Structures are given as C-alpha cells and as structure tokens.
Amino acid sequence: MPETRSAPASLIAQFEVERWRPGASGPALERVAEEVPVALVYEDVPHGVMLATPADLEDFAVGFTLSERLVEESAQIRGVEVRYAAEAAEVRVSVAWERFTALLERRRHLTGRTGCGLCGVESLEQAVGPVRAVGAGPTVSTRELHAAIVALAELQPLNAQTGSVHAAAWVRPGGGIETVREDVGRHNALDKLIGARVRAGAALSEGFVLLTSRASFEMVQKSAAVGIAFIAAMSAPTALAVRLARQAGVTLVAFARERQHVVYAHPHRLLGDSGDNRLL
User: Fold this and answer.
1) pLDDT at 215
2) Residues whose CB is less than 8 angstroms from the CB of residue 237 and which lie 6 or more positions away in sequence, other chains included
C-alpha cells in the first residue's frame, strides 16, 4: 500500500460562505486548507520563512535542505526539530559544521510566497546555476505511468476535502505509488516527498516523481539536485524547465493524463507497452 497521510482537522479550517449556482444559492460550510508561516532555522540562525501546509515538516526540512543544495548529502543533516505555535511553526535543523559555514553565505531573511522556489536568491548565478547530470534512472512503461496518474486521484485526502493543494507522488516501476505528500505549495510538496524518501533510506534514482502541478524550472532543478531522473507533471512545463531537463539528462513528461502525455526531454526512459520508445 502506498504511504499517504490523513488530513487531520488541524490542517483544515471551516468557514461560513454564500454558495451560488445557477438556480440555487444559500449559506454553506466550506473546508479550506490551512497555510502557516514556517521558519527554517539552521544552528540558531534564521534562514527563511515559507508559507506551507503544517504537516510533514520534518520531511519538508530534509527535502528542502537537500534540494536547495544547502548540504551535499543527507548524512550532513544531523537533526530536525519542529516547534509549533498557534499559527506558525519553526523547524530547527542541525547540519555538519563545514556545511553550516557555507550556508551562512546564503543566509536569507526574506519571507517567501507560498512554495516560493527562488525567493531570497540574490543573483542570477544562484538562480540558474550549474546542475549535475543525473544517473541512468528508471525505465518506465506508458502503462505504469498512466496507472499511477489514475491511482493518485484517490491518494490526496487533503485535496479531496479542500480542492486547493498540490501533490507529489513517488512511483516505483513495478510497484506503483509508494509515497504521497500534499501541500499548498507545489515546491513544498516536492520537498516533503524528497525528505520522506530520504528519511526512509530509499534511493531516489530507482523511481519517478509524479506531480499534480506544472513543471516549472525550480521543480526540475530540485529534482536534478537530488538525482531524480524522471519527472511527470499533470500540467504544462515552462521553456526554462525543458532546457534544464535536457541539460541535466532528466526525462520530463508533462500534460500527463490517463490516456495521453507529452515527452519534452530524454524519452529513452519511457517505453511503450510493446517495449518500443514512443511519444504519446
């Protein structure tokens, strides 16, 4: 069974609203996803504030630290502690001393927008820097890809109640969806997924990521930074994302639906059911 998270009441608020439809209107109760400031603190030094869904924040901290290349490997993350306040959260991360020294050079004191992927970056070189090429990665059949797209619809409990959050799923060829994370920010959902897989000791090169969001540059950049070689997104890519995927060797699939998809980069990892490579 895939690892998912329930949607506890603390993640959802209820508001009295006026609902209108043709021929009918009136008061109703509406469920809305919670969104809180999450402060990331490294060795007592504030690094930044993100707006996020207040769940799986340990996963978020680990994934963010790795995908933003604040450390080179997960072993350099020594500990994560989450402290909740009434309407906010603080995540304190301990890292190896040699990485903390480098991290100080990238200190950010800006409050990010929801899932802000490049907030606080101070130069073009930081924003669009060099990326390491990914490894061989998995081989995925079109049947497996489309089956995962269908299955993910039933594995988003928070979105099912609020309709306002993104999901990132980890899919293992031959095993289906194994992990799902949700968040109001698409970058946050991906970071949570990366963190969950790393904390479980899983190899990020052995499966692929399925996103309910668009495939923006930052999503490809984060994935490539941790060695993910295959990304499938249900929405569109950006041109910069396509160029980065081609440069880094990442297979990028977008407009992924139950019976269709478009491959924008490195189609060799996606095989038709007969074993032949093809674009659908």
Assistant:
1) 96
2) 214, 215, 216, 245, 252, 254, 264
Determine the Cα–Cα distance for residues 167 and 223; give it in Å rounded to an integer: 15
Euclidean distance between CA atoms 74 and 185, whole angstroms: 23
- pLDDT tens profile 160-209: 999 999 999 999 999 999 999 999 999 999 999 999 999 999 999 999 99
| 108 and 229 share one domain | no
CA distance linking residue 24 with residue 259, whole number of Å: 36
* Residue 12, in any domain of the structure: no
Question: pLDDT tens digits for 14-36?
Answer: 999 999 888 888 999 999 999 99
119 a catalytic residue? no
Nearest-10 crossing angle of helices 186-199, 217-225: 10
The CA-CA-CA angle for residues 33, 39, 42, to 5°, reads 145
Catalytic residue among 36, 55, 89, 116: 116
Q: How many domains does the chain have?
A: 2
Q: Tokens 């946050």 sit at which residue?
A: 188
Range of the domain at 229: 140-271
Centroid of chain to Cα 146: 20
pLDDT of the residue at 9: 54
Beta pairing, strands 251-257 & 260-265: antiparallel
Of 164, 270, 269, 276, give the one whose Cα is nearest residue 212: 164
Strand 12-21 versus strand 24-33 pairing type: antiparallel
pTM summary value:
0.87
